[in-house]
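In response to reviewer comment 3 from the previous cycle, which asked for concrete evidence that the modeling workflow produces usable outputs, we include below a single protein chain processed end to end. The sequence was submitted unchanged, and the resulting structure tokens are shown without manual editing.
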Amino acid sequence: MHVNVIKKMNDREYKNILMKKKGLGFKIQEFGSIDVSSMIDTLESITDEQWLEKDGRQEIHDVHSNTQSLLLIWPSEIVLREHIKGEINHKNYDMFNMKEFLESIKPMYQQRFGEGEFYRASITRLKPKSNIERHTDTYYTLLKCRRTHIPLVTNNDIKFLVEGKNHSLKVGKIYELNNALHHSVRNESDEYRIHLILDYVPNNNSL
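The workflow returned the following structure tokens.
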């Protein structure tokens, strides 16, 4: 386990937020839908070289070793040591027209969570015939956010398990994941699974 994770786990505020989030009473919930056809079209032009640009997550976190990410909004440091808003990666951000996309979905997030900001955004793909092993998101900043997934490419042979229960996620649906709970992914298909992952932080810091 990374040294920084151990430090955070000994912190009283971290433990409080962990217990509070675990007690939210849901595993994963759908709360909206959005047209992602334009984003899917853009994905077809992304080269393997672009997908393989190092973002460091795979090297630091073994659980993500089978994934590759296009970072859209992300902290300058790979390790999420501070609870701060990420920086825009303009090449990827503009390619996917993220400014307009986030503006279009923000009202749904505000209705669910209150006024706030998108702190992080990435498009992440999981290799065919591979897994993301069972884990929880341990960094304080990842627990302080409302982590959401929007599937872009998926199929019935991909299993998203939260506390051992499989959830069939659909393209274009918006899901909030309770990332304080154990979750994993099994890609039993011959295609990549691709999700847009957005971390939203309410201004009132509420969960």
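The first strand starts at residue 28 and ends at 33. We consider this sufficient to address the reviewer's concern, and the full set will be provided in the supplementary archive.
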